[in-house]
Design goal:
CATH topology: TIM Barrel
CATH architecture: Alpha-Beta Barrel
Radius of gyration: 21 Å
Largest sheet: 8 strands, parallel, barrel
Number of strands: 9
Order of helices and strands: HEHEEHHEHEHEHEHEHE
Number of domains: 1
Number of helices: 9
Strand order of the largest sheet: 1-2-4-5-6-7-8-9
Shape: globular
Helix content: 25-40%
Distance between the termini: 45 Å
Strand content: 15-25%
Length: 297
């Protein structure tokens, strides 16, 4: 009788564990919360003498935050990316009419919020009246306000993530850089954008890596020529159909960083990792914790 009870007890534990595993793999719609590994959260700013890239490691940056599991460019998306151990968190920055900076991809409010009109036409206070109303798992997202640049950088700093910042529309480059400096993120930041914006950044800062953004089907060689006009640490963030292993090698041979966006299939990501890309921007690929550079969760 004792052995029977023991076997039933073991079977109960196995069934319970299996049910929990299935529920984690196949979550109910709009109720999924990424499960972070246990451990203390500690901010680890990049050492100023330590290169941002290097070594045989995988680096994933969460596209507009972990936007596969929260509305893009939301506080929740940024926090999920940090909790899941991403190396970097990518966002888009525009300047308000009163000189503040906010995280939003489009030039207008229309697609992602309950507002209408150009982002640059509003003050920061006025933008605070609008809420994000589009995106994944919207119902479980509590904070739907448009994040400020400062809020985004604070989250990157809290979780030790690299800030991957794409310039959309800004005029005051000095103020933009001052926000980065004040948050102590200049040693753990990458700035993405058009060459004209990157030239403005480089004329003011000699250290932060800058990457020109490339769009398919533009030839990858055009991006290489464009970014070579800029001094210092630099590279290209390619729309991934632009580049194969040969193109990655050609970019590196010029002494340039090479990254790709937005790769959402793990087999494609593996090909780029094998080719040696410096980082991958993704919407969907979960942080593979045994390989990720960020170990703060």
């Amino acid at each position: 009788m004792y052995n029977i009870r023991k076997k039933l007890w073991i079977l109960t534990i196995l069934l319970f564990s299996s049910a929990a595993l299935i529920a984690w793999i196949f979550p109910a719609n709009d109720e999924y919360t990424p499960v972070a590994p246990t451990g203390a959260v500690t901010a680890q700013a990049q050492n100023e003498n330590e290169p941002l890239f290097g070594g045989d490691v995988e680096r994933f940056a969460a596209h507009r935050g972990y936007s596969g599991y929260a509305p893009e460019n939301s506080i929740s998306a940024f926090e999920f990316a940090g909790k899941m151990g991403f190396w970097g968190i990518e966002t888009d920055i525009s300047e308000t009419s009163d000189g503040a900076f906010v995280c939003i991809h489009d030039d207008t409010l229309d697609r992602t919020t309950d507002g209408e009109g150009k982002v640059t036409d509003f003050t920061l206070e006025k933008l605070g009246e609008f809420s994000i109303d589009t995106g994944n798992y919207l119902k479980r997202t509590e904070n739907r306000k448009i994040p400020t640049f400062e809020e985004y950088l604070d989250i990157c700093g809290e979780y030790g993530c690299t800030a991957v910042v794409e310039i959309k529309t800004i005029k005051n480059y000095d103020a933009f850089l001052s926000v980065i400096y004040e948050r102590g993120m200049d040693n753990n930041c990458v700035i993405i954008g058009a060459v004209k914006d990157l030239k403005e950044i480089r004329s003011r800062d000699s250290k932060i890596p800058v990457l020109n953004i490339g769009y398919y089907p533009e030839p990858y060689t055009d991006n290489i020529k464009a970014i070579e006009e800029i001094d210092g640490e630099k590279g290209v963030l390619y729309n991934y159909p632009q580049v194969d292993k040969r193109a990655v090698k050609a970019t590196h041979d010029k002494g340039l960083y090479c990254a790709v966006w937005a790769v959402d299939e793990e087999d494609v990501a593996e090909e780029y990792i094998e080719a040696g890309v410096d980082f991958i921007v993704t919407n969907e690929i979960p942080a593979r914790l045994e390989h990720m550079v960020n170990e703060n969760e």
